[in-house]
Amino acid sequence: MSLRAALTRQADACDALGSEFTARLLRLTAARLQRGTPVADRMLDWPGDVSGAGASVPLRFAGALHGLILMDHAPELAPLWPPHAVTDDTLWAGVEAAMRAHQGELMAWLDNAPQTNEVRRSAALIAVGHILSARYGLPIRLSELGASAGLNLFWDHYALAAGGQTLGPEAPALTLTPDWSGPLPLPCDPFISDRRGVDLHPLSPSDPADRNRLRAYTWPDQPDRMARLDAALSVATPVVDQGDAAAWLVNRMADMLEGQLDFVYHTVAWQYFPPGTRAACTAALEARGEKATMRSPLAWLSVEADTGGAQQGAAMVLRLWPGDRTPIRLGRMDFHGRWIDWRC
Fold it and tell me: Alpha-carbon distance 133 to 297, whole Å?
């Protein structure tokens, strides 16, 4: 796929996920980007897959520009970004000027893949956490694969409000309010005994640079999303290890404790794992499942894209051991957690 095609495809995805500005910026880039600066030349000559399924070059570029603004390194760009409104010509003139004036910083941003930590996905984790707590009545050890900064490892600090009911603590750091269809699980306060995650390139919620990186990839015309991110950062601590998910999971599952439930999950991360990593993770979980008892059960939640298509969101599938006779299909969730169709 060419860069221009990838920019257009990503723009369509941004439109579908509610960011009109990012979609507009990427379409302008697709139409007007020309050779002549190191930044433009690098993007146009990028080797391999530049789309969201590969290097995500469009989101690298959009995040790089937003990052300059958030760090106050490009004050000339700030009046062109939301909440301000300017013409396409004015916006693109500013982008071209930034590519010349800030090429060193932009090239450094392009070195790294985008990283987000969409907190609204915790709505599914809260619901499943209450189900598991009611079913087993045990302390829960959380393990997240592809955890980024680990913000979704702190879902017990958030509340879920839907259908006139609320699940979660009395004084939550934030309250998630997705468009929810279906019954809400009954309240059953989960107790989290331990939480850890793994990521190839983890971000620390305690590091100002990493916090800024997370904010940079949060689209600038979605202030509510930024507010949720900041609220989650206010309670999160560094709990994510650097490493390959499969090797980390083998070690994690080897430490099986009596009187504790292992709750392993991943949300829109599995597709980015190499096939060998996915196979090894599955094998590690199934091996742990074979040893599971009602005093040391295992729950594996997958919230991932499937054949349903982008408009149908991610499939929520739960496997439980002992047993695991049939995966439990909980329903579907928007990739950014804006809606949940709960069918369980």
Answer: 11
| SS3 sequence of 209-249 | HHHHHHHHCCCCCCHHHHHHHHHHHCCCCCCEEECCHHHHH
The angle formed by the CA atoms of residues 208, 213 and 214, to the nearest 5 degrees, is 100
Q: How confident is the model at residue 311 (pLDDT cuts 50, 70, 90)?
A: low
3-state class (DSSP) for residue 141: strand
pLDDT tens profile 56-92: 999 999 999 999 999 999 999 999 999 999 999 999 9
Q: Quick one: CA dihedral 282, 284, 287, 291, positive or negative?
A: negative
Compute the radius of gyration of the chain from its Cα atoms.
21
Collapsed DSSP state (helix, strand, coil) of residue 263: strand
Structure tokens at 222: 């979605």
Q: What is the pLDDT of residue 256?
A: 87
Alpha-carbon gap, residue 287 to 144, rounded angstroms: 18
- Residue 165 CA to residue 173 CA, distance in Å, equals 17
pLDDT of 153 higher than 60: yes
Q: How far apart are CA 49 and CA 55, in angstroms?
A: 6
SS3 of residue 64 by DSSP: helix
Nearest to 44 by CA among 30, 63, 65, 62: 30
Compute the mean pLDDT over every residue in the chain, rounded to the nearest whole number: 95
For Cα atoms 147, 106, 218, give the angle at the middle one, nearest 5 degrees: 40
Query: Is the pLDDT reported for residue 310 higher than 60?
Result: no
Nearest to 254 by CA among 139, 148, 143, 150: 143
- Give the span between the Cα atoms of 319 and 297, in whole angstroms: 11
Contacts of 224 (CB under 8 A, 6+ apart): none
Tell me the C-alpha distance between 261 and 141, whole Å: 6
Token pair recorded at residue 297: 């059960």
pTM as predicted: 0.90
Name the helix (H) or strand (E) containing 319.
strand 314-321
